[in-house]
Amino acid sequence: MDSVSRPPTPDGAPLLGHGLAFARDPWTAMREWAEEGDVVYLRFPGRSQHMVTAPELIQRVLVERDDEFTVSRVQQRTFEGVEENGVAATTGDRWKRLRRALQPAFARDGVRSYGDRMAERTADHVDRWDDGDRIDLLAEMRSLTLRVLCDTLLGVDVAGDEHVVHDAADALVAKTDFRRVGQLFPDWVPTPTDRRFDRAVGEMDDFVASVLADASPGEESVAGVLLAARERGDVSTAEVEDNLAGLLLAGHDSTAVTLTYAWYELSRHPEARRRLVEEVESVLDGDLPGTEEFDALSRTHDAVRETLRLYPPAFAVNRQATEPTTLGGYDLPAGAQLMLPQWVVHRDGRFWDDPDAFDPTRWGRDDDRPEYAYFPFSGGPRHCIGMRFARLELVVALATMADRVDLDVSVDGDLTFTPSLSLRPDNDVYATVRRD
Length: 436
Known about the structure:
Layout: H1 19-24, H2 26-34, E1 39-44, E2 47-52, H3 55-64, E3 69-71, H4 73-78, H5 92-102, H6 108-112, H7 115-126, E4 134-136, H8 137-154, H9 162-175, H10 192-214, H11 222-231, H12 237-268, H13 270-284, H14 291-294, H15 298-310, E5 317-321, E6 325-327, E7 330-332, E8 337-340, H16 342-345, H17 387-402, E9 406-411, E10 429-434
Parallel strand pairs: 2-8
Antiparallel strand pairs: 1-2, 3-5, 4-10, 5-8, 6-7, 9-10
Helix pairs in contact: 7-8, 7-17, 8-12, 9-10, 9-12, 12-15, 12-17, 13-15
């Protein structure tokens, strides 16, 4: 790429380029870089990257010209050792084959049938809390969402094995922490974080093997769907195992983080909380929410949408150009790495009034904004395969909890985030349980 066709480059540090600012505070750094233009050129140790923040350009990458882009090397490296054979990390015909194999488990009607069980599991979990209890909110939400996922999509009881999945998820977050000095070392140099990751993933591999041992091909679970695909010769054993591992890790953690932030914001905004509870009480009338009530919970949907806008669980989508292309008037070579940050676009004042404010009512207004000003589950053919499941669980779980308890959320200092794979809070988030 010559200097004429290169996008603007924000100021960076000697040697480390933009890596230092990104490791210290990616959230502020990305928003500042975006002020330079809709496409900017960034330098990191050992690589370069283009950050794209114009919704119409994001739509071109993810949807209109998706054949010119694939998952990036950054994303593939992220999942090495845990789900490199999974649908999130594979490309080309192999990705298409895996996506087809998994799709039956996430069909719309099948997913919606899980609503009743999601509500029951949530009610059981919340009913263990006593008035005045002070709970670790993220830990409780992770326990809940893992139980829901295993009970519905996998058809297994995870009781007693929760720590195995939680430890693997924590190890992956630690390994991908941008502040970790070990990320600068060659892959063959072992670090304590790498060794912890290998141990945790090994234990989760054993758990996945036990799930598969108890599953039967063709049964109504992801394990059954994948085993049937393996019998047909559509997928390998390694692909079955890695896709189940990926489902366990991302399928519980991202939903738990979103529920944590939803309660954090509802606790800070009493009027939004009042409106949501008013709707829940009217729609549910003391019953549990299920498939029939899902569509009627419009304010709950709006609270979830607004939480995903402010706190997208995966704060950026990464892509790689498969061939020379042009984007936003700039020439990109084959292999160019792209970062499409939801964190920036979801908080861009060009598309959102008072963009940093939590305002669920904005979703009831007829605001004219580009479609890809909002893409919490990515978009195009590679959108998150669990999107329908996650949306259903978030609405059902939030409504079930709001009908039973109020949570007074507290954070030690300002809310901060771990600069890693997922948008986890970097500080402890506690909640005091209030019952009427």
